[in-house]
Amino acid sequence: MPIVTVLQGPRTPELKRELVQKVTDAFVDSLGVPAESVQVWIQETPPDSWAIGGTLTADK
Q1: Confidence (pTM)
Q2: What's the domain count of the chain?
Q3: What is the pLDDT of residues 16-54, one digit of tens each?
Q4: What is the span of the domain harbouring residue 15?
Q5: Distances in whole angstroms, Cα of residue 25 to Cα of each of 19, 56, 59
């Protein structure tokens, strides 16, 4: 059973639906596993809890 973890900033439910479908399809196509066996976990980090180059993304 493949388990995929996606770390990202907040996204809309529509974008997350599209993402998990495409990730699932990639595993089905490349590994030949059934779609029902693929788990995708999305962990969202708010902009004030994540930095790039020493600056919070909330401050950009």
Answers
A1: 0.85
A2: 1
A3: 999 999 999 999 999 999 999 999 999 999 999 999 999
A4: 3-59
A5: 10, 34, 36
- Spell out the residues 6+ positions from residue 28 whose beta carbon is closer than 8 angstroms to its own: 34, 35, 38
CATH at 20: 3.30.429.10
Using an 8 Å Cβ cutoff, are 50 and 56 in contact?
yes
CB atoms within 10 A of CB 8: 13
The residue among 21, 50, 32, 47 whose CA lies nearest residue 4 is: 21
pLDDT digits (tens, 9 = 90+) for 1-10: 999 999 999 9
The single-letter code of the amino acid at 51 is A
The closest of 3, 9, 42 to 24, measured between CA atoms, is: 3
